[in-house]
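Appendix B, Record 12. Input sequence as logged:
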Amino acid sequence: MNNFVVNEINTICDKITELDKFKNKTFFITGGTGFIGSYIIYVLSKLNKDNNLGIKIIASARNKEKVEAMEFDSSINWIYSGLNDEFNIDNKIDYIIHTASPTDSKYFIDHPVELINDTIAGINNTMKLAVKNNVLGYVFTSSLEVYGMCLEDRFLKENEYFSIDCNNVRNSYSEGKKLLECLCSSYAKEYNVNAKIVRLGQTFGPGITKKDNRVFAQFAKAVTSNNDIVLATKGETKRSYCSIIDAVYGIFKVLFYGNSGEAYNLASDNSYYSIYEMAELFINNTNSKIIINEVNDNKYLATIKYGLNTNKIKSIGFKSFESLDKMINKFKKYYSTI
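Logged structural output:
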């Protein structure tokens, strides 16, 4: 396993102090080979090994070969399934963390119907499992995109929303996440599922592969290859970002201490930057330049300008450990090793 990834896992485990919450519990994690899902599994495995906690981990993934290529503990019980597949699990489950979701903007545009239908099925299938097991806690990982097209350049609280054009298929992701959040809160009320929602800022860190095409990955690929950063827009979109350390730490805080049926913003402190400003951080101490070459392509989200107000999650014990400049410096070093 890459040393940068190992260091992230160790750091997260060092931050977690409520070990009694994990003792002799069974966790079900969807999206187990995804970026956030895999980190949650790695952290659970290390906490278990280091503290003899009796944790059992069940995880879902679509691709067996991908699981086998990653360095997971052999004790994990893997279920190979897609979002549409119901889970036949006999084990008693205490906690569910639902991270499985497409993240590629091109997929949002090319397959909006599948995106919406499959993710609705995924919530329903995990919630049926939650009801059956009367779980202690359930977390659904959502996105800052649910807030819509805000251009007010401010930090939004969990109850502030702006319009989303539901006839733009790129918004199948944004509108889909809103519907999934509503389903999550509906299960909490109607079936008494202790379900909570985490609205993540765009999350990155060591472990992101070079196949990833999100903006931070493109920037890292450029500067670590001594190439210029070429922007397809003016880079005016401004949003909050989240380190993988803060993301996993925050997800566990919401799982254990969040209020049922409620949403919590999760982002790193000092991470509210425009895409152009982030590009400037990436080219620091390099010979790369920023070049703007605007293209008219609907795969890009329209310009937004808002950050995430994290006061609510901090009220239940969350603390941010990383800022964007620290995240980027570490990410560049990591990318130079892969």
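The chain has one domain: 3-204+241-268+307-321.
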